[in-house]
């Protein structure tokens, strides 16, 4: 009389492996994909599907693999675990128990230095000294800069507003369109009509008044392109420059140059 093999015995007691394999193929998942998702070796998943218990680790680990595999495939984990328990060979269970009861063997002992010596790393000491020197140097630089800023305020001209001063400093050399001096037309020549193109990517509040006092645009404007014409210089106010692009006589105006921290801008503009 011959003794049935492990695979034959498992197939006689249950067929959880066939359930796993069928579910995997139904989900159109390869063994490689399942192994990567579950962090289980591909050969172990193959052994579960084939119910080849000899290629699996201890019963406890193999049973956990089967349960996690069943959950991943959307099967009833309890049913799969019961089928696994029924199919697992008795001789492998006994071997697994013997391996579990084997006491741990010490791998060696750690030796402590009973002299309690304290060792200093010269490179670490030099690094600490360097950090201290750098901190002192930076502290002195900040102190000197603070003294220079607090030395004496620069007097301002009473007949020039803060907005006009900001416009005088905000000149965009790349576009040829500036503010302040250029907007006031200091050359003395007569200024003709100028064309403004306003493009909005989103709603924004815009006010544009030309030199004649005509309101070319005022209030909340929706996204779109607007073509305007009037006598420069133009008085421009924008509540959010991020939503607006402006062109004067087909030349782009750098609105970020005039914008404050809250993205609002108020300036005069002329060719």
Automatic annotation (TrEMBL):
One of its GO terms (molecular function) is DNA binding. Keywords: Membrane, Transmembrane, Transmembrane helix. The keyword Transmembrane applies. InterPro entries: Bact_Cytoskel_RodZ (IPR050400), Cro/C1-type_HTH (IPR001387), Lambda_DNA-bd_dom_sf (IPR010982), RodZ-like_C (IPR025194). It comes from the Bacteria. Gene3D superfamilies: lambda repressor-like DNA-binding domains. The chain crosses the membrane at residues 120-139. Residues 198-261 form the Cytoskeleton protein RodZ-like C-terminal domain. PANTHER family: CYTOSKELETON PROTEIN RODZ, PTHR34475. This is Cytoskeletal protein RodZ. It comes from Psychrobacter fozii.
């Amino acid at each position: 009389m011959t003794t049935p093999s492990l695979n034959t015995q498992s197939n006689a007691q249950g067929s959880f492996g066939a359930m796993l394999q069928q579910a995997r193929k139904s989900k159109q998942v390869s063994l490689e994909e399942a192994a990567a998702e579950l962090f289980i070796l591909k050969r172990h998943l193959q052994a579960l599907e084939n119910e080849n218990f000899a290629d699996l680790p201890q019963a406890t680990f193999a049973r956990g693999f089967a349960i996690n595999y069943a959950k991943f495939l959307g099967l009833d984990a309890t049913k799969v675990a019961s089928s696994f328990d029924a199919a697992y060979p008795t001789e492998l269970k006994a071997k697994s128990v013997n391996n579990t009861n084997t006491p741990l063997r010490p791998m060696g002992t750690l030796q402590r230095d009973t002299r309690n010596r304290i060792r200093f790393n010269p490179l670490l000491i030099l690094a600490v000294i360097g950090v201290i020197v750098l901190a002192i140097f930076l502290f002195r630089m900040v102190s000197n800069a603070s003294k220079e800023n607090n030395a004496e305020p620069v007097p301002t001209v009473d007949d020039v507003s803060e907005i006009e001063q900001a416009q005088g400093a905000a000149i965009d050399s790349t576009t040829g369109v500036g503010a302040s001096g250029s907007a006031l037309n200091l050359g003395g020549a007569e200024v003709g009509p100028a064309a403004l193109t306003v493009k909005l990517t989103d709603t924004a509040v815009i006010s544009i008044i030309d030199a004649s006092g005509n309101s070319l645009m005022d209030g909340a404007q929706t996204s779109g392109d607007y073509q305007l014409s009037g006598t420069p210089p133009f008085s421009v106010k924008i509540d959010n420059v991020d939503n607006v692009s402006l062109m004067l006589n087909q030349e782009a105006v750098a609105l970020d140059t005039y914008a404050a921290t809250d993205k609002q801008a108020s300036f005069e503009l002329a060719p």
